[in-house]
Amino acid sequence: MEEQTLPPAPSLSSTIMNVFSAPSDAFTGLDKAESKASLWIIPLIVVIASVILMMVVGFTDQSLKEQRLDATRTVLEQRVVDRKMTQEQMDQAMTGMEKGGGIILAFQIVGVTIIFSIIFFLSALVLWLGNKFILNSTANYEKILELSGIATWIGALGIIIQTIMMVGLNSIYAQPSLALFFYNNFDPLNSTHKLLAMINFFSVWQTIVIGIGLSKWSDKGITLAMIVSFVVWFLTLALMYSMGIAG
Questions:
Q1: Whole-number Å distance between alpha carbons of 120 and 140
Q2: Which DSSP string do the residues of 156-193 spell out, in sequence order?
Q3: Is 8 helix (H, G, I), strand (E, B) or coil?
Q4: Among candidates 13, 205, 45, 228, which has minimal Cα distance to 124?
Q5: 3-state secondary structure of 247
Q6: CA angle 193, 197, 199 (to 5 degrees)
Q7: How much is the pLDDT for 173?
Q8: What is the rounded distance in angstroms from the CA atom of residue 242 to the CA atom of residue 136?
Q9: Which ranges of the chain would DSSP assign to H, the alpha helix?
Q10: Span 55-61, average pLDDT
Q11: What is the rounded average pLDDT of the residues 82-106?
């Protein structure tokens, strides 16, 4: 019996162009094509590199660095008020952050790399489960990684734009989210502010594109595919918030 020859996977360049201009074309036939790890490995590396770049900018720009320290001080002061830490512990923590900038940045870079990788694979796993048991698609986990990777290019662009906004508007709170409207008086202790900051326009765009991709691989319709995509998005945000890297 002859083995069935799978159609070739789309090129990296074509998927990048299509995900921004014609996302439906980016995923058409992808679930039946041969697997291509570069479709998810490269965008994952790029998005992590973009986050690291944003962190470096925040550490090296003196104004942004001072704002970051002020935000941390505000949070720690509230912990002292809530008796979750002592004033001495707070003073030691702030002194360590002020003096150990380079070391802290290095640890944070390692942490971000690990955390973003874990979140990428976990969210893809949940997408695969939803795609399999709710949308009844036969696409395997590797194909969901490819779908997630292609959509991740949107997230990478959003992080780059956020970095530019931070520098241009001279605020660590300047970002393409609903919190943009009050970035000058953002309160890191305000739950509403933090919630609105999580609703990032590029993240929503990326989630919609993932929903389009899922709908191309099933016969359940675009509405159910979007529901699956946004449920995974919500769970991902909840995980990031619990880890202290969102909001």
A1: 16
A2: HHHHHHHHHHHHHHT-TT--SBGGGGGGGG--TT-HHH
A3: coil
A4: 228
A5: coil
A6: 125
A7: 95
A8: 31
A9: 12-21, 23-27, 38-60, 62-81, 87-99, 101-133, 141-169, 191-198, 201-216, 222-242
A10: 93
A11: 87
